Each structure stands twice: as structure tokens, then as C-alpha cells.
Amino acid sequence: MKKVVSTSLLGFALMMSASSLAFAQDKTAKIGVLNDQSGLYADVTGVGSTLAAQMAVEDSGLAAKGWKIEVVVGDHQNKPDIGVNIVRQWFDRDKVDVIVDVPTSSVGLAVNNVVKEKNGVYLNSGSGTSDLSNAQCSPNTIHWAYDTYQLANGTGSAMVKSGGDTWFFLTADYAFGSALERDTTNAVTAMGGKVLGSVRPPLNTADFSSFLLQAQTSKAKVIGLANAGGDTINSIKQASEFGIIKGGQKLAGLLMFISDVHALGLPVAQGLSFTETFYWDLNDGTRSFSKRFQERMKNKAMPTTVQAGVYSSLIHYFKTLDAMGGNSHDGLKIVDKMKATPTDDIIFGKGTIQPNGRKLHPAYLFEVKKPEESKGPWDYYKLVATIPADQAFTPLDKSACPLLKKT
Amino acid sequence: MSINLQALSAQLLVGLINGSFYALLSLGLAVIFGMLNIINFAHGAVYMMGAFAAYFLLNLAGIGYWPALILAPLAVGLFGMVMERTMLKWIANLDHLYGLLLTFGLALIIQGVFQNYFGSSGLPYAIPDALKGGMNLGFMFLPIYRGWVVIFSLVVCIATWFLIERTRLGAYLRAATENPTLVRAFGINVPLMITLTYGLGVGLAALAGVLSAPINQVRPLMGADLIIVVFAVVVIGGMGSIMGSIITGFALGIIEGLTKYFYPEASNTVVFVLMVLVLLVKPSGLTGRAA
């Protein structure tokens, strides 16, 4: 009997040491980049986000400290069911620790639930919907680069201030579009403006002329484009064809990325104003990152806000892992630690993360340069105003996030 | 809902513009299916290639819109003929399914290659100076370019219909599809004719591509987005019927335009709902002869 006890004690001790050993020395992490690799958001996210993730791995310096970090990529084709399937497979079979990027709000929200259920880490830079840090917030999620509240607030208020007090919306008919329309409507009415109406073209529409005509007949001073990527490009291009700008109406691209401006070309895009949280030519940090990024991109494109966001979010994640001394694979714990640590990187500068999972950094109101003002390719934006970090995003007392009620 | 007559007539006109693209594309499909019995799923890809050809002509060779209107369809048509000679020819006598799969695969490859090099946002192509601006019709502002698209494609459609249904060459062609051996016996080079017909169908798609380049972005996926709708148009009109595909193309453009006005959320689906209804009532399509 004594022997049995001692052997089992020995076994127990061995097990204890083995598990604690594993805990102290588990220096592995697996990153899942989930986005649109081939559809209308492929230039905003796509291979550029994968590259940004790889650059973050290299720049983190963790490999030199004995870490093994792996990046896997998935194409969700902008469909929530496909996205959810990939993420489940990643967690169950491939033991992925952290999901990054995930554009298309409908997919972003669906993935949000799975990551929470699997206790992973979710660093979303691609989705716009501000619901990720409001009603749908999750203790495993940090919403990183931008959101619809910040876009609406920046562009909406600026337009109303400069006299655009009546609005008509062209809204992409899915979660992101309606969130953006809702947030912009709030921003516009709060400033004393009025919304005259809206029309909802399906996602990925080629011809916007019918919708633009409806916007034209509404006589609204501002036509708000609550859409993104290819949809925004087509609507702006066709708006100039139908003489909407010449007729005195203004276009507000509520979500514009530099890839959109590049695709439109300055002759069509000039004068558009919109809000972004990142531009490659902001300061030395953004310039150095962007130049390195551009060199490695096959089509020599500059990084978009989303791609830069993927880099920034992973840098903070790696910093946190390094500080914790190992990867516990416990999403809740890691996200808590990430929230407790102030952020600092070359993309967004110094920042913080709110308890509801909203990453805070300044936002910028840009205007697209005239062709003669641009010094060369990718020299597209003029900085009009800077919105400080504490005013750019949803104030905590207005956030509907259930996580906030506990504290 | 109050119906604004002004807005409604504007939507009808816009629908007509989209209809002209549907008509041009479905016409090419109908020609190819009628004469070669091939369901050409690569049609969207060659449409996209037409737009890219115009872009390259302008940016690499400095050749503008007007010459591109002829050169781009010719170049893409040649590409199509090579495709027919090297690949499609070998499966001409097999089941339709093989042609469908082969052309579908080709379309994926072509799109993939373009996407690899040009991304998904696309490239800008400006409206030619002569067609810039617009006129005020009272009920709407009509960009001159769009008006040009409607008139030009109508002319091309009717010319193609005339060529096939009313000329001697067209008669040979139609005869060759009915009985190739017999037509050969008369000393007519049937394989060459078939190749040229495929080139014609592909050229029509490329022409539509050039026409659409200034309106939409020149994007690798521009054809993939459109081709499904165009197939629905062809099915509604009746596979292989030339006049049927022209009329259905324009009509469906108008119906889609009306949907965009009354219930925009459904504007991407209305064509398919109609397709289902037509197939239920008349499986061979509106103008198709029963097989």
C-alpha cells in the first residue's frame, strides 16, 4: 500500500512538473488571417493583410527569443457561413490561437461568437460595424483599426459643419452598411442636420445609376456612401458621370481606403473628404513601415488602414505574450492582459484599449489632393483635421456593451 | 408609395442602358450556342479581356477609345479563335456538359491570372472627350456616353441579326449547324466557318467590354459578376435564338431598372425569379423552339 501511495505521489509530482514545464516553455503561437482573398475587398485586406501579419511576426523579434510563430490564411469569400466554418476548423483541428483581420461586418460578427465560444483571441481590423464593441462586444475581442461610429462621427460632423445639413444615403444592404448609416444619421442629427432618405443597393452592385438618380432627385446636399471597396469606387465614378457633383450635391465617402482612391485615380477622386485612422505619409513610423510593405507587395501597393491595423494588433499581441513569458492559449487571460497594457507602435502611435474591447487612437479627416498637387503615385491625401483618440470613438458611457455593466 | 413619373421614366432609361449590355453579351452567347452548340461560360472572361485590351491599348500604345472599339474585339476575337482551334474543337461532338466545364475552367484561369496582376479594385478608364458631359432631358440628366452605348449596341445587335438571319453567309452557317456533312459537300469550309463564328461571338463580348470600360472600373471580376445574369437572360429568351436574346436583354434591363426603383434590395435577384417563372411555364424559353 505504501508503495502504491509513493508511486502515485511520484507520478503526480511528475505530472505537475511536466505541466508546469509545458506552461513555462510553451513558446508557440498560431495566427489565422481570415479575409477576402479574391473578391471586392481583396485589395483592402487580402494578401496585403497576410504580408502585414508576416511582417509583424518578423518585427516582433520573438523568433530570436525561441518562439515559434506560424501564420495561416483563410478566404471567407465575404460569406458568414464559410468564415465560421474556417474558424471552427482552425480552433478544433489546427489549434490556432488568434484570428486577425476579418473584413465584412456580417462575417466579422459571426466569427466573434465562435472565438468567444472557443476562448480564442480575436483582433478585428477589417470589419466596420461598431457593434463589435457595443451590443455584440466579447471579452475575447479587440476591435482594432476603425469602426462605423468613428467614420460617421469624423466625416458626418465635418460635412454638417461645412453646410451639408441634408443627407441621402446609398447604403450597402448588409450589417456594415446599416451600422454605418445608423451611426452617421446619429452624428448628422446631433449636429442639427436632417436625413431625407436612403436606398439600399445589394452588396457588390456594378451599376449604381438608378440609385444615384434617386439620390439626385432627393435634392439632399450630401449623398452619404455607406458602402465600401468596389461598391464605393463604382458609385463615385458613376456619380461624376451623372453630373451629381456639378449639380451642387456633395459626395461623402463614409469608408474610403487608399486602394479605392488609387483605383479611382485623382481626376475622379479629387476633393473627396473622409476619415481614416492611418495614412502611409503621416510620420516617420508610418512611412518606414509602408515603404517596406510596398517593396514586398506584388502590385507595389501602399498598405490600407486595415492592413496596417493587422500589423499593429499583432505587434501588441506579441508584446503581451512576451511579457507573459509564454503562451497560455487562454484567450480571456491574454485579452485581459492586452487591455491592461498601453499600446505603442509605429502605426497608430501610443494608445489604449477600452474595457469594451475598443482600441483607441486618433482619427484623421483627409481630403483627396488635386492631380496637380500630388507629387507622385500614392501621394493622395491632404490632412484637414486630427480628431484626438478620446473623441474619435464611442464614449464609454454611450457604449451598450454588457461587459461594462459588471464593473 | 407615391410614384414619381419623372423618376420612373429616368429609371426606364437607365434600365435600357444596362439592357444594351445584356443584349450584346447574350447575343454573343446565342450565336455561339446556336452555331457551335457550346455553352460558353468563358463569355464573362472575354468581356473582361475586351475592357482590359482597351486599357492596354490606351496606356501602353497610346491608342484611344475609337480605334479600341475595333482593335480590342479583333484581338480578343483572335484569342477566341485560337481557343476554339486548340481546345473547343476537340469536344464539339461530346455532351454540352463538357463544353460548359471546359469554358468554365478557362474562365477561372483567365480571371485568376488577371487578378493576380491587377488586384480586385480595377483600373480607371476615362470617357472619350467627344462623349463627355451630358444633357438635361427634363426628367433626368443623361450622360452622353450612356446614350451612345444604347444606340451603338442597338445597331450592332441588329447588324448581327441581319448577318445571320438574312445574308447568304448566315444561311451557310445555319445550314452547317443543321447538317455539317452536307454543307461540306457543297464545297464550303465548315470548320473555318465555325471558328470564325466563335471569334464573332467572342468579339461581341469584347466589344461590350470596351463599351463598359468607361462606365465601370476595368476589373478582373467584371465579367464574373455579369455572366450569371446574362445566362439567365439567354435562358429566358430561349437558347440559341438571336432575336430572342436581343429583345430579352433589353427587356430585362428595363425590368431590373424598375425593381431598383420599387424594391432595390431585390434588384440582384429579380432576373432569376423571372427565369424560374419562365422555365416553369415555357421550358424552352420565350422564343425558343422546343428541342
TrEMBL record, chain B:
<keyword id="KW-0812">Transmembrane</keyword>
<keyword id="KW-0029">Amino-acid transport</keyword>
<dbReference type="InterPro" id="IPR052157">
    <property type="entry name" value="BCAA_transport_permease"/>
</dbReference>
<keyword id="KW-1003">Cell membrane</keyword>
<dbReference type="GO" id="GO:0006865">
    <property type="term" value="P:amino acid transport"/>
</dbReference>
<keyword id="KW-0472">Membrane</keyword>
<protein>
    <submittedName>
        <fullName>Branched-chain amino acid ABC transporter permease</fullName>
    </submittedName>
</protein>
<dbReference type="GO" id="GO:0022857">
    <property type="term" value="F:transmembrane transporter activity"/>
</dbReference>
<dbReference type="Pfam" id="PF02653">
    <property type="entry name" value="BPD_transp_2"/>
</dbReference>
<comment type="similarity">
    <text>Belongs to the binding-protein-dependent transport system permease family. LivHM subfamily.</text>
</comment>
<keyword id="KW-1133">Transmembrane helix</keyword>
<dbReference type="InterPro" id="IPR001851">
    <property type="entry name" value="ABC_transp_permease"/>
</dbReference>
<keyword id="KW-0813">Transport</keyword>
<dbReference type="GO" id="GO:0005886">
    <property type="term" value="C:plasma membrane"/>
</dbReference>
